[in-house]
Amino acid sequence: MEALVHTAPSTPGDCVTRWRNFGHDRLYVRTVAGADLGWWNLTTGEGHALDPQRTPELKRIVRDWLQANGLGAPARPVLRQVTPLEADEPQTPAKPRRAAGYAAPVRTVVEASADLLSNRAGEALMRREVAELAAGRSSGRRFADFVPEASRWEVGAVGEQLVADELRKLAAQDPRWGFLNSIPVNAKGTDIDHLVVGPGGVFTINTKHHRDARIWVAGDMLMVNGEKTFYIRNARREAARATTRLAEAAHLPIRAFGLVVPVNAASLTIKETSGDVAVVNRRRLVSYFASLPTVLDKDTVLAVFEAARDCCTWLGADA
Length: 319
Description:
This protein is of the alpha+beta class. The protein contains seven helices and 14 strands. Strand 1 and strand 2 form a beta hairpin.
């Protein structure tokens, strides 16, 4: 498969590299100083800024490059997430009363604020891919030198996008459910793949894309093609982090539960469940959430979801 690489300055001091290969058509953007701003998907019209605060700069450079090359303005990105009860009239929900004896700890406030509703599935992984490409470029590698196989980041991002597709089905079927993608939890790039909030509770999802793999589960042990993993342990830690942060931000004694969601596995054998972490095949996600009993009322769901959308909820003192 032939790769086409084209480099041209969009404005003085800016550099745009177009990379077309393996079904992708992207613009990788950096400044004359060599700072990577991120990349733009020409197929979907979606931008991926390494630093969200520099998104306007990325959009401006891409817009200028497209106009200079006669390709028109970039398409406006579309939010893919769904808020709980979006079918209802917009309203400001009353803050639920705190449970007796519950004291919310003091929250460390960070200056930056962003609505995580705009985060797309796999966004954190694609940022890592951009970083690796930048490293390859700085060491003399050219985009044309890459072999025709998806990176581990791309494989992971595809898995998260497939899970997000199922979550959209859930929200469309029952608008009391909502979800967020790619939730950053520290400055090192660590994220929670998905957070799901609805009448059945609060859940973190750890997506694992293992195509045609044999997955075997017994308690806290999850094996992929006979190899031990720490997936269940990691999912438990993510749920614990979400429990602490959301309870603190929403001033409610809520508890999040962890899910491990295999994608495109050949088989999934569950000999014994772990109790607090469930392993659910991607195609069973909608039925899994739909089968849960109601444990949270509408006001609580909305309060938790609003807290979860705020990046300040997650980027605390340990970020």
